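Renewal narrative, Specific Aim 1. Our central claim is that a sequence can be written position by position from structural information alone. The example that follows is taken directly from our test logs and has not been curated for this report. It begins with the structure tokens describing the chain, in the order in which they were read.
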């Protein structure tokens, strides 16, 4: 019997190819978005599943409450907590780590920016990380030893075993490579480039290279503590001990007043490892990379609404076609078919369409996974392999979607009474009034128009920002890491053909150090400013306009500030600022030698910030090179000279213009919005198509009679189309003001922005109106040309 159901359903799909394609395409679009969310959900559930004891590992988090009663939860905990627990006879595996490393890792030939963490030997007792090379336990017993992640080890040394070699971590010093940690078989919320022995921390603190946090209870935001428990009894015992420790820490904090939480309270709580990712969205200082549970639920809710809209369109089209399949149902019932058998027949047809839509959606998903059009710094669609498990989830999802879409049409078709249907299918009213369906069509087109308006605004705004002048020069400028001999290398570059000049800088604008500066050497609030260290050549290279003073001279300890900084410091004029003294980081005294015209360090869309430009070659990390315009061989020429001056070091320049364009590039976001816009317009159009087809089917007898009594083709088209055109106009009246308001709210996030006018709104509405009218006229025109005798001969 099942075979016959499938065969009949397949023949019906082939007989009605257009309707089948429309249904499959509409469902495939919505299902592709749902599949993206399913991929993200399954990817989030894969975090930290590879640990041997993942169900019994907990993270100790800190809940802080201020005197006003406001509270917040930190994923971190004080570094001394572990030792206190051990002293309290906690019999469990405990480890802590301290992610305080952000430096440039260098060996004899390469250098890379890395993020690192200090760990202990017990790290490998609690977690399931393994070593590819070296002995993890021995590696962490002595100071100045580290483990590399597999990815970083391959960057430096390829497939070779680097054990025993040395690596320099910025100012922290030289470390011996004691091994390499394997890339875990699944994702982990713990993800660093270097893992350094915790035994090093005490030495670094004593040398002033790290703040003294190792034994400080005032380090709530510094460390992370994890514990592996054997059973629930051990958990309850631990919670009691954490409560006692929390009470003592709160008491000591209130007595000494050392912590900002003075007169507040702290409490240590347990968070299971499998609740970290996906985790809470209200937890601060988290090191996890995955999405939160709240964001996944929001995404699931949105795609469920999209899927419902697509299923409703399937229902609309199926109900419209039901009027032409009524005789089929009547004959089958007269032949002895039960209602449940007819229901199953049409439900199976819907499931087959959903499975075919799944195939097309899988193609769309495959293209998204391969080309990553929505990924830009943020992994919107995780890189996954669509294996058997994921495909099983997709198939189950498609079956549920098919049942969701086909239940109503199957129920309606199976309810037909044979005698009435065989007498005249054209007179059958299936769903009563159309008001609900019309309202839904209006809402679908309104949503589509709002997305179109927002997409247009989004694209125009970022196109405007990309073309705007930030107030400094950036074309034909390359930044190269200073290397071992920056002065000699820069001099050699200046002699090259096509090089205009060279300079030095601590970094490009936008990546400055955030510092506090004030007019007095005190603890006053002061001004938060962006600080850049550079030489006079960099100022000239950037074409910064000095509007007061002379600017600093090379070799001095002077500084320049921008106009915004003069206002922030309270100077009455830019002239008054010249020659004044300010203190940076509370104690460093510098003299203002000049004021430069304001420029946008954070991009034209953000407000101008106070800027301090200090002279000092000792802190300069990059050689800045300006080439003649259009010099095509600049990279090759610079690389050749670089290797002469710095043999063994990799040449890794970046061009200022290209790098800033890349960071401001919104292609991924525009692609995602365009895809969603295309999908919503398509679904809305299919919904309108179903409504038009249904109306035409139910009014065929009326149309035929009107044509017999003399109605023209134009009159028939007008009669059938007028109501639907009104729906489109109503959609516009709703969506245009909403889209305008939302677009302006979006534009308020930018210091400089475009203005949305009548022209942009008219273009968006005209585009959507044209699509709607084509959909309407394609069916009403066809109905107006039909032969009346063919529709009335059965009467």
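The sequence written for that structure reads:
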């Amino acid at each position: 019997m099942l075979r016959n159901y499938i065969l009949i359903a397949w023949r019906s799909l082939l007989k009605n190819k257009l309707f089948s394609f429309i249904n499959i395409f509409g469902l495939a679009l919505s299902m592709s978005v749902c599949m993206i969310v399913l991929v993200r959900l399954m990817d989030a559930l894969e975090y930290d599943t590879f640990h041997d004891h993942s169900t019994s590992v907990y993270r100790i988090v800190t809940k802080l409450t201020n005197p006003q009663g406001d509270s917040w939860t930190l994923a971190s905990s004080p570094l001394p907590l572990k030792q206190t627990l051990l002293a309290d006879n906690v019999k469990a595996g405990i480890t802590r780590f301290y992610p305080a490393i952000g430096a440039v890792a260098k060996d004899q030939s390469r250098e890379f920016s890395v993020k690192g963490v200090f760990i202990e030997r017990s790290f490998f007792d609690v977690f399931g990380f393994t070593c590819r090379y070296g002995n993890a336990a021995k590696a962490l017993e002595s100071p100045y030893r580290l483990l590399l992640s597999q990815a970083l080890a391959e960057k430096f040394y390829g497939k070779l075993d680097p054990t025993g070699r040395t690596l320099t971590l910025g100012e922290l010093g030289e470390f011996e490579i004691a091994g390499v940690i394997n890339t875990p078989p699944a994702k982990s919320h713990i993800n660093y480039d270097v893992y350094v022995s915790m035994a090093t921390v005490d030495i670094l603190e004593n040398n002033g290279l790290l703040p003294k946090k190792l034994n400080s209870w005032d380090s709530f935001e510094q460390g992370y503590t994890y514990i592996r428990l054997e059973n629930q009894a051990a958990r309850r015992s631990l919670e009691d001990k954490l409560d006692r420790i929390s009470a003592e820490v709160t008491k000591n904090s209130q007595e000494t007043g050392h912590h900002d939480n003075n007169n507040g309270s702290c409490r240590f709580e347990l968070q299971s490892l499998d609740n970290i990712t996906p985790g809470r969205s209200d937890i601060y200082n988290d090191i996890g990379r995955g999405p939160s549970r709240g964001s996944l639920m929001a995404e699931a809710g949105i795609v469920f609404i999209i899927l419902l809209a697509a299923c409703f369109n399937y229902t609309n089209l199926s109900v419209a076609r039901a009027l032409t399949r009524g005789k089929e149902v009547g004959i089958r019932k007269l032949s002895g078919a039960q209602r449940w058998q007819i229901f199953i027949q049409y439900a199976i047809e819907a499931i087959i369409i959903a499975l075919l839509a799944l195939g097309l959606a899988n193609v769309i998903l495959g293209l998204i996974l391969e080309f990553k059009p929505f990924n830009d710094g943020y992994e919107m669609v995780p890189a996954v392999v669509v294996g058997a498990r994921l495909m099983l989830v997709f198939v189950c999802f498609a079956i549920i979607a098919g049942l969701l879409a086909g239940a109503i049409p199957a129920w309606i078709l199976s309810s037909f009474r044979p005698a009435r249907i065989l007498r005249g299918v054209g007179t059958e009213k299936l769903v009563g009034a159309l008001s609900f369906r019309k309202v839904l069509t209006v809402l679908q087109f309104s949503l589509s128009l709002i997305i179109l308006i927002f997409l247009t605004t989004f694209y125009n705004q970022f196109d405007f920002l990309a073309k705007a002048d930030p107030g400094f020069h950036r074309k034909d400028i390359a930044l190269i890491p200073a290397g071992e001999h920056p002065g000699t290398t820069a001099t050699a570059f200046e002699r090259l053909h096509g090089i205009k000049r060279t300079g030095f800088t601590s970094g490009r604008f936008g990546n400055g150090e955030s510092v506090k500066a004030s007019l007095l050497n005190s603890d006053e609030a002061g001004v938060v400013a962006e600080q850049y260290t550079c030489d006079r050549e960099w100022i000239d290279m950037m074409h910064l306009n000095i509007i007061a003073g002379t600017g600093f001279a090379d070799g001095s300890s002077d500084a320049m500030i921008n106009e915004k900084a003069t206002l922030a410091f309270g100077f009455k004029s830019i002239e008054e600022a010249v020659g004044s003294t300010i203190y940076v980081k509370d104690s460093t005294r510098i003299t203002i030698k000049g004021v430069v015209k304001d420029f946008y360090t954070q991009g034209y869309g953000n407000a101008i910030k106070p800027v301090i430009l200090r002279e000092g070659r000792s802190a300069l990390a990059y050689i800045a090179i300006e080439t003649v315009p259009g010099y095509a061989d600049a990279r090759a020429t610079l690389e050749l000279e670089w290797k002469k001056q710095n043999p063994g070091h990799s040449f890794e320049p970046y061009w200022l213009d290209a790098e800033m364009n890349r960071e401001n590039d919104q292609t991924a976001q525009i692609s995602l919005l365009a895809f969603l816009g295309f999908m919503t317009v398509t679904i809305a159009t299919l919904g309108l198509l179903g409504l038009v087809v249904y109306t035409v089917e139910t009014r065929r007898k009326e149309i035929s009679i009107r044509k017999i009594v003399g109605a023209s083709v134009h009159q028939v088209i007008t009669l059938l189309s007028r109501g639907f055109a009104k729906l489109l106009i109503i959609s516009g009246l709703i969506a245009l003001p909403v889209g305008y308001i939302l677009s302006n709210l979006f534009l308020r996030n930018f210091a400089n922005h475009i203005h949305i006018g009548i022209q942009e709104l008219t273009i968006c509405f005209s585009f959507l109106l044209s699509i709607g009218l084509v959909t309407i006229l394609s069916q009403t025109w066809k109905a107006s040309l039909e032969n009346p005798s063919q529709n009335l001969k059965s009467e």
